[in-house]
Amino acid sequence: MQVTILGSGTNLHPTRAAAGYLIQTDLPIVLDFGPRTLSNLLKTGLDRHTIQYLLFTHYHADHFSDFLTFFFDAICHSMFSDVRPALTIFGPPGTKRLFRTMLRTFPNFKDAPFRVTLKEVHDQPFAIGQTQITPLPMTHSDQQVCLGYRVEYQGRSAAFSGDAMVSPNLVSLCQDADLAILDCSFSSHAPGGSHMHAEDCGKVAKKAKIKKLILSHFYETADRSNVVAQARRHFSGPIIKGKDLLTLKVGRASQMD
Ligand SMILES: [Zn+2]
Ligand SMILES: [Zn+2]
């Protein structure tokens, strides 16, 4: 399994795209599609029209607004060039209502010759090809369900918190994971209400006994502090400060980088 960070920032950040990850197992999966992540996806060299599976953690704009551009492009490509394969979109309860409304705003959608399937998930595992996905509700918003996802392939695991505060579900999601990419919106000096800060990430990493911690989803203020050192106060394993287009291989221990 290989994970490429498409965005390690938030809605508006001078140097980072917002939330998004490209997961490559037996097939490519995009997890969240925040502003500017589509541009980074193009830079990976992957043909965007081969992507058939999207996972969304929740629907704050910093996690899904580039979907609109992606989808418009997919319609045009299918109408004027080659028909793209079907697209399946997974997300929390509310996904069907939201996407049915959004898709109606695309004037040519009914002419697009590819299938779109919407699937709402909550806490039950499911499979995409050979990849096992386990969603779990996180603590982040009172207005909508926010999911974290654990992705398992060939005996290796990567956990994605989405936006989250510390909770038993988050620790469970990350338990013994080879890699965990956690919401580190803020430094420990400027903790925010509905996100974790760097020390929280370190505490979760220790409690869940993860193998490698990736800090991500930085507000600008987090970039002004040494968030790795703050997380290190609680977690002694490897810690990486995420950056856009960083690729992480989740293989056997000797292959991890
Ligand atoms: Zn959010
Ligand atoms: Zn967010």
In short:
This protein is of the alpha/beta class and 257 residues long.
Total of domains = 1
Uncertain segments are: none
Number of helices: 7
Shape estimate:
globular
Bound molecules: zinc ion
Strand order of the largest sheet: 6-5-4-3-2-1-14
Strand content: 25-35%
Q: What would you say the CATH architecture is?
A: 4-Layer Sandwich
Overall helicity:
10-25%
Task: Give the tags.
7 helices; Metallo-beta-lactamase, Chain A; 257 residues; binds zinc ion; globular; alpha/beta; single chain; seven-stranded mixed sheet
Structure, explained:
This protein has 257 residues and is α/β, with parallel strands linked by helices. It has a single domain, classed as Ribonuclease Z/Hydroxyacylglutathione hydrolase-like (Metallo-beta-lactamase, Chain A, 4-Layer Sandwich). The protein is 23% helix and 27% strand. It has helices at 37-43, 66-80, 95-103, 168-174, 198-208, 220-223, 227-232, and strands spanning 2-7, 20-24, 28-33, 53-55, 87-91, 116-120, 126-128, 131-138, 146-153, 156-160, 179-183, 213-216, 239-241, 247-249. Strands 6-5-4-3-2-1-14 form a 7-stranded mixed sheet. A 7-stranded mixed sheet has the order 7-8-9-10-11-12-13. A hairpin with a 3-residue loop joins strand 2 and strand 3 (28-33). Helix 4 crosses helix 5. The longest helix is centred in the N-terminal third of the chain and has 15 residues, at 66-80. The model has no long low-confidence stretch (mean pLDDT 94). The structure holds zinc ion (ZN) (2 copies). One zinc ion binds at residues 10, 19, 60, 62-63, 163, 217.
